[in-house]
Amino acid sequence: MKVLLTCALLLAASLVSAASPEAAPGPSLYDLSERLSNQDGAPVGLDVHRGNKVLVSMFYSSCPATCPLIIDTLRAVERGLDSSQRSDLRVLMISFDPARDTAEALRELAKTRRIDTQRWTLARADDAAVRRIAAALEIQYRHLPDGQISHSNVITALGRDGKILARSTEIGHADESLVRALATAP
Amino acid sequence: MRLAGNITLLFALLPGITAFAGGTGSVPIPGARFESVLPEAPGTKIANVAPFRLDVSLVSNADFARFVRAHPEWRRGSVKPLLADAGYLQHWANANEPGESSARKPVTQVSWFAASAYCEARGSRLPRWHEWELAAAASDAVPDARADPAWRQRILAWYSTSARGVLPDAGMSQANYYGVRDLHGVAWEWVLDAGSMMVSDDSREQGDPDLQRFCGSGALSLEQKENYALMMRIAMLSSMKASYTSGSMGFRCATDIEERR
After folding, report:
1. Could you say which of A46, A149, B33, B207 is the most buried, measured as most Cβ atoms within 10 Å of its Cβ?
2. How far B40 CA lies from chain A's nearest CA (Å)?
């Protein structure tokens, strides 16, 4: 069975690589014009931090395991930058779970995790927008019957115009490739 | 005698004609609890699908051209690289027109983003995987033909020849039990949750689901060879990023049916 499955995957992968040359370099996340609302319930765009370099990831606040770790990892990347680079950096975290992650829940998370909402934005969006944003960030997620959300962890570094500089699936420590991409981008 | 023969022929043609006239419409699919090849969680094989409406046939190039004319941001050459790769609508005669010969064929070379935008512009959405799987389990005679070896064999035959040759026109294959066409034997199809199919069941595991984890994990319990056709589809879908396009990947739309209180 495993062999069959592997073959199917490899075949599919070869179909895809044959059919899909890589997109032109440097797509911008801001080409998605999604409406979000922040922890204060204020409407913001996906490009809320346009003009700054940004780390973007997704989470849900009732998550027991990885989401606290995502915040820790984002902070570790911040610490990898020098202080002027750090003050220039913004963080955008978008919830998978708009039903439970109300503005109140996001504010509560900001409070308990001592998040500086001057530089970090915790945001929610409707289900369709969440799906598109996750797709653009190459994050997979699935609502489980028990109310948990199974998801992959991807942290994306954006340039000032939203251009995707680097992606990382490493969690628990600062991925050097993210730090370098942020430090060297104009 | 000759007259009678013609009448018989006429009646034989009629169902096909009326069904083609409805080819751009949708039909209701009753909700169901059914055994999916892609369980929602470990230990559950049963998927719950609420009643929904599903397009009878795949979206055609002509259908998609109408959308592109109304939404020029989705024109080939104008579309943002985040939302579609370089193959997007490359088979069309120009940025607005597919060309006469392919107008009625299913549109392919469209990204998940583009397919989603098309359905949303129509007030609908892409079908979820479980919805697609439920509708595709039907033969022309019964709602769940998955245990019928002859039916399975017909479907498998296509998977050994797909991605080759010329696409047939949309809506020309035999309607299934629900009146839906083209589910097998025509093209792969985007689904709403294409980006959710391979995710590991345990998000405490780190990193992206990879080949090894996918094979070894409990996310899929594909133990029967007859699921091979669906497995191919799942493998294809999960290997496509949302901006990717393929000459064999099309789509259709679905809508929720509001339950009455």
Report:
1. A46
2. 6
